Amino acid sequence: FHNAATRWVDDYGELKKQWIQADDRMQANRLFYQLKDRYQVTMIEALADRQFLPRYGFPIGVHALKVRLARDKDEGSRIEDQFRLERPSLLALREYAPGCSLIVGGQTVKSRGLLKHWTGALTDAPMGMRGYAVEGGDGNLYYSTVSKQRLNQLLEANQTAPRESEWELLLPRHGFTTAAWDKPHRAREVDLASEVFVTTTAFARGQPYDGEAEEIEHLGGISNLIGIYRQHGELLVYNKGDKECGFAICTQCGYADGEIEATGAGRERLPRGFERHIPLEKYKGQCWKEGEAPVLRHQWLAAQQTTDVFLVDFSRILSPGQCNETLMWTLGHALRLAAARVLELDARELGVTVISVNAQGARGIVLYDNVPGGAGHIHEVIQSPAASRNWFTEMRDHVLYVNHEHDQRCQTACLDCLLTFDTQTDVLAGRIDRRLALSAINQLMQ
């Protein structure tokens, strides 16, 4: 309990110190809202994030898409209760991000912005926690939800320099909303879910994690293949917007849209029609007055989740050139699907991402329980040498190879091996090559 409480107190104290020492009003105002957001975190949520309390049974890390309907006689809008659209925050960033639409009850609704309060009311409250992120020279994304100083300390601890300018993160607290002026309607086409990215700094140096990581040698019976397991790892899921330039977000009503250029402040180079947008809670009028620009620019929408994470590091047995994105993504999805087969689980209960494991840019696979707090699935398949060998054999024989006829006809992926709902994005992006992965794993498991 002391460790869990101390983390919150230290973060709040550092922000408060920055607020007291702030030189200009704009910076002080930003820090004030960050302090306000942290202060409003419930005790249950704060302790659950630190794994002191279980998350099950509490509505933590769940985001809703509220559907607004205009009232008659210009009386604002109301939230339609018949649409109960809720997702874990990791899924919500993909399906409910501003600009995405979905079909509900035979009608199409479109997300137009962020909620400022869970009831849908417009209040003078922060829309979520703020943070900073930057890509390091090793190819990993480093981030901090406390301060730029923390981010710089993390980069220094991992002996890497920023590859590009930093980005601002916004972690929505209350979810997303449609607009009263854009009522549900029937449509033949919908805007598909946004692409989201997953990363972790659970294996980076300089992170204040509780407990030691568990290292496993000769994973799967393969000499010098290293696995590192951490029970309380933190994931960051982020959405860069369609153009990967972040989102512009109105701080008055929450209206948001994807940025079209990487530069611009205030009213400069805003998304088309943004400065003349109608408030989300109304069906006519204009949100901004002339000369105003109450807007956050170039924000990456993000969410954090603590869960069990496991790093598979091939860098000791393969060259940096071999540990490339294509091979690691293919092996990662194959291991995820094999683990689901071994444990007799729905494959969606497990997730995978790829990170850099050394300064030469060699990539490694991170598998994780796709459940807040973790469920012990990953640990079950690595709990003994026999279990890990069975896992890798299942991956090679029944996910990658399948049978002789399949091996002859399938190059990258198909419904008999790697092609699932969760892998389709990587297949379309060219990050999956079944034959490459099968050849590599056959050599390693000889």
Radius of gyration: 23 Å
Overall form:
globular
Mean pLDDT: 88
Derived structural class? alpha+beta
Kindly estimate the percentage of residues that lie in beta strands according to DSSP: 15-25%
Low-pLDDT residue spans: none
Order of helices and strands: HHHEEEEHEEEEEHEEEEEEEEHEEHHHHH
How many E-type strands?
Answer: 19
In whole angstroms, how far apart are the ends?
48 Å
Description:
- The protein is 28% helix and 24% strand.
- With 446 residues, it is an alpha+beta fold.
- The strands form 4 sheets. Strands 8, 9, 10, 12, 13, 14, 15, 16, 17, 18 and 19 form an 11-stranded mixed β-sheet that branches. A 4-stranded mixed β-sheet has the order 4-1-11-7.
- Strand 5 (101-104) and strand 6 form a beta hairpin.
- The longest helix is centred in the N-terminal third of the chain and has 20 residues, at 2-21.
- The model has no long low-confidence stretch (mean pLDDT 88).
Tags for this entry?
alpha+beta, 11-stranded mixed beta sheet, 4-stranded mixed beta sheet, single chain, globular, 446 residues, 11 helices
At a glance:
This protein has 11 helices and 19 strands.
Fold blueprint:
Blueprint: H1 2-21, H2 25-39, H3 43-49, E1 62-66, E2 68-70, E3 77-79, E4 85-88, H4 89-95, E5 101-104, E6 107-110, E7 113-114, E8 128-135, E9 141-144, H5 148-157, E10 167-172, E11 175-177, E12 197-200, E13 214-216, E14 226-239, E15 247-250, E16 256-258, E17 295-313, H6 325-343, E18 350-356, E19 363-369, H7 377-382, H8 385-401, H9 404-409, H10 424-428, H11 434-444
Parallel strand pairs: 1-11, 10-17
Antiparallel strand pairs: 1-4, 2-3, 5-6, 7-11, 8-9, 8-10, 12-14, 13-14, 14-17, 15-16, 15-17, 17-19, 18-19
